Amino acid sequence: MGFLDILSFGPDGWGYVLMMGALVSVALAVLGFLLGAAIGVFAAWAKISGGRTLRTVADGYTTIIRGIPDLLVIYLFYFGGSAAVTAIGKYFGAEGFVGFPGFLAGVLAIGISCGAHHTEVFRGAYRAVFKGEIEAATACGMGRMLKFRRIIAPLALRHALPGLGNVWQVSLKESARKVRRIRS
């Protein structure tokens, strides 16, 4: 049996299993990346224009989550999520252990981890927009939302794309690691 026979989709090959693992890994990465982007937009807004409390919470979130190893985050969500779901189930009258879905734990862990990185990417991209362009939009009479939609968002997205590519690579790497942990 050769190397290509092992990778085949036949009865002796592992091709189907490898393809399904790759699909699950990409699905985890995409969903986690999108969840992280949503978290990152809100946290970046809190760091830029929020009050002191919101800024402190967002700073704490990014500092703590970026300092925790990704494997610890998945273990916290998988095992801690199972314990939390079991406790909630007991409160409502369920008996025994109630499991937490591994896929959901992976999406949440990747989303929380990537959200901290997204926060810094979006914050840095917003800070990279020149003040003169924002002042020119204000001088033209644009409102806050129109100014954001026509001036700030396109320019910030241009600055954010390289960083978002890096975050995507990290989320894809994490998803492959999490698929291995979820399956075993």
What would your notes on this structure say?
It is found in: Cell inner membrane; Cell membrane. By secondary structure, the chain is an all-alpha fold. It has a single domain, classed as Orthogonal Bundle (MetI-like fold), CATH 1.10.3720.10. Helix content is 83%, strand content 0%. The longest helix has 40 residues. It is flat, with a radius of gyration of 21 Å. The protein starts with a helix and ends with a helix. The model has no long low-confidence stretch (mean pLDDT 88).
Largest β-sheet summary = none
Q: Give the termini separation.
A: 26 Å
β-strand amount: under 5%
Question: Rg, please?
Answer: 21 Å
Q: What's the rounded overall pLDDT mean?
A: 88
* Annotated CATH architecture: Orthogonal Bundle
What is the CATH superfamily classification? Answer: MetI-like
Domain count, please report it. 1
Order of helices and strands: HHHHHHH
Number of DSSP helical runs: 7
Q: Classify the fold: give the CATH topology.
A: MetI-like fold
Structural class: mainly alpha
Q: What would you call the shape? A: flat
CATH class, named Mainly Alpha
Residue windows where pLDDT falls under 50 for at least 5 positions: none
Strand count: 0
